[in-house]
């Protein structure tokens, strides 16, 4: 989990799940792009290590990654391709990807591109375009979410009422964080903008839905995945 000391309050990343894969062919060379959500350099580098094992007969396993809410960690590798023709174009494709019109805020993403040489030289310019296109085309298809730093507020409710209440809160547009279960109660957790008005409005809605039986208690902040509308 990211520490809440960043000046950024939201950014875009890959949706949680398995690695996303996409392949293109350019002049008989195969470019296999694999995208992975990663929140540390170790996790980002693990992607390339795994690709080297899986595609051990390929000539190149190039990589790039962006990490952190402020995207302050950026790395790339050409892995034997001519300097500047693979890793940097891949990194630029990640950094310049507009997740919404006019907004390039993609982060916590590691990209690996495996190249199988097809016998036709692409030249420096061709390689730059190929590696950039490989990552850009994969990003255009990969599932994304907004990662927002939100205030967590919790409420204890009877087990029997928890399911219906959670559905009602979701239907009202609230983002739900992870639910926990105690011996006597279910603890519902709402992820709200860290603003007094938003928290007050949520508390009033909860009171209305439970006829005053549940009280909302503000807690700390967490990074939470929020689906795109």
Characterize the structure shown.
By secondary structure, the protein is of the alpha+beta class. It has two domains: 10-142, Ribosomal Protein S5, domain 2; 148-227, Alpha-Beta Plaits, CATH 3.30.70.240. Helices cover 30% and strands 35% of the residues. It contains five helices and eleven strands. It has helices at residues 41-54, 87-95, 123-141, 159-171, 196-209, and strands at residues 10-14, 20-26, 29-37, 60-67, 73-77, 109-116, 144-158, 175-176, 180-181, 185-192, 217-227. Strands 1, 7, 8, 9, 10 and 11 form a six-stranded antiparallel β-sheet that branches. Helix 2 runs parallel beside helix 3. The two termini are 23 Å apart. The mean pLDDT is 94.
Major sheet? 6 strands, antiparallel
Mean pLDDT: 94
Helical segment count: 5
Q: Per the principal axes of the C-alpha atoms, what is the gross shape?
A: elongated
Distance between the termini: 23 Å
- The number of strands is 11
CATH class call of the largest domain: Alpha Beta
Number of individual domains:
2
SSE string, helix = H, strand = E?
A: EEEHEEHEHEHEEEHE
**Helix amount:** 25-40%
Name the poorly predicted regions.
Answer: none
- What's the multimeric state? single chain
CATH superfamily membership of the largest domain: Impact, N-terminal domain
Architecture per CATH nomenclature, i.e. the level-2 architecture of the largest domain: 2-Layer Sandwich
Radius of gyration: 22 Å
Question: Can you give me a brief rundown of this structure?
Answer:
By secondary structure, the chain is α+β, with helices and mostly antiparallel strands. It has five helices and eleven strands.
């Amino acid at each position: 989990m990211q520490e809440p000391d960043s000046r950024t309050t939201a950014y875009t990343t890959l949706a949680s799940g398995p690695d996303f894969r996409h392949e293109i062919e350019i002049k008989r060379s195969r470019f296999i792009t694999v995208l992975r959500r990663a929140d540390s350099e170790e996790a980002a580098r693990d992607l390339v290590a795994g690709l080297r094992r899986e595609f051990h007969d390929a000539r190149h396993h190039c990589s790039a990654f962006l990490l952190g809410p402020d995207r302050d960690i950026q790395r790339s590798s050409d892995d034997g391709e001519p300097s500047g023709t693979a890793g940097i174009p891949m990194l630029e494709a990640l950094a310049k990807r507009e997740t919404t019109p006019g907004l390039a805020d993609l982060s916590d993403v590691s990209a690996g591109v495996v190249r199988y040489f097809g016998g036709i030289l692409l030249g420096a310019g061709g390689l730059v375009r190929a590696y950039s296109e490989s990552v850009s085309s994969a990003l255009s298809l990969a599932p994304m979410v907004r990662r927002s730093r939100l205030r967590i507020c919790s409420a204890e409710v009877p087990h029997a009422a928890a399911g219906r209440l959670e559905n009602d809160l979701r239907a009202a547009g609230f983002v739900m964080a992870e639910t926990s279960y105690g011996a006597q109660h279910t603890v519902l957790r709402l992820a709200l903008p860290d603003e007094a008005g938003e928290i007050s409005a949520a508390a009033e809605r909860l009171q209305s839905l439970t006829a005053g039986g549940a009280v909302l208690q503000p807690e700390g902040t967490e990074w939470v995945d929020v689906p795109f509308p």
